[in-house]
Amino acid sequence: MPFLSTGGTLARAAAGFGLALALAAGATAVTAPAASAQPVGSGTLSFSGDAGDYISGGQSYSYATDTQDRLNVSADSDHQHIGISVDGANGDWWYLDLAAPSGQALTVGEYTGATRYPFNSHVEPGLDLSGNGRGCNMLTGSFTISAVEFGPNGYVQTLDATYEQHCEGGTAALRGEVHIANPAPPAELDLGLDVALNGTASTLDGEATVHGSVTCTKPAQVAVSGTVTQVAKRVLIRGSFGTEVSCTPGEPATWTAKAQPTGTTPFQHGDVEVSAQAGAYDTDYGVHTSTTETVAVELKKTNS
């Protein structure tokens, strides 16, 4: 029988439980990481069904951002799967999943022989339209993509597709279409990290002070961390450091940090190895970006 639930959260929970059972039985449902769902700037999703179709109940449904319905879209980083959610202004909720066979990216073309996503085999396309407490346990169908355009990190800029699905092997069909038009994707956050070739070793507390700068392609709060390592008189001296700076494009942000030795031997005048990492969160894509740098730095004694 088709599954029933009283809300979107329960429906997705049921689907997740079904996925766990399928994996235990040996089904394949491995996907690449998806970016955070993005609001659709301009889009529509509509469908209607035959009299015997369980999902639509033989009715027609239509949703559009122009009429205050909310649409969100997300995609895998390898562009194999696109998921669209609808929160209707009238309280309706629906989910549409379109997936290419394993190892393939969605592109313009016709996808036949689709089965229920995410339980489709690695050679079958995946499809699923469910919501409002209704879904198929098993389905067959097809979909056609007439236009699709991705940006970085699973950003979906354009999608035009039609789809048809049949529940539980029945002949009654549900047919629909989806159209998404989003702005050009934002630039990705890119970081640069520089570690200065000079630093200081304090004679007061034995700490090493290192410094440098970071650059960014868009505003970001950048965390800089790392380790300072030195061998002096056959003694290994090591300490970690961390700091945070605000970065603005076009203006290198300087950073300074202190590394306290983990043992009793203080940092000495001479060469050390500094391994540093700069990281920041790209709020546009919901991903973390980082870069690393390892350099030899000369420490000079200081009384401060």
What does this structure look like?
The protein is mainly beta. The protein folds into two domains: 3-181, no CATH class; 191-302, Immunoglobulins (Immunoglobulin-like), CATH 2.60.40.10. The protein has one helix spanning 8-24, and strands at 3-4, 38-39, 42-49, 60-64, 70-75, 81-87, 93-99, 109-116, 126-131, 134-135, 139-150, 156-167, 174-181, 191-195, 198-202, 208-216, 220-232, 235-247, 253-261, 270-282, 287-302. The strands form three sheets. An eleven-stranded mixed β-sheet has the order 2-5-6-7-9-8-11-12-13-3-4, with no helix packed on it. A hairpin with a 6-residue loop joins strand 12 and strand 13 (174-181). The chain is elongated. 37% of the residues are buried.
At a glance:
This protein is mainly β.
Question: What descriptive keywords fit this protein?
Answer:
single chain; 304 residues; mainly beta; Immunoglobulin-like; 21 strands; disordered N terminus
> Which residues form runs of ≥5 with pLDDT under 50?
1-33
Order of helices and strands: EHEEEEEEEEEEEEEEEEEEEE
Q: Mind summarizing the main beta sheet?
A: 11 strands, mixed
| Radius of gyration over C-alpha positions, nearest whole angstrom | 27 Å
Number of strands: 21
Into how many domains do the coordinates divide?
Answer: 2
The order of strands across the largest sheet is 2-5-6-7-9-8-11-12-13-3-4
Cα(first) to Cα(last) distance is: 76 Å
The percent range for strand residues is over 45%
The helix/strand class is: mainly beta
Into which percent range does the helicity of residues fall? under 10%
**How would the global form be characterised?**
elongated
Number of helices: 1
Taking all residues together, what is the mean pLDDT?
89
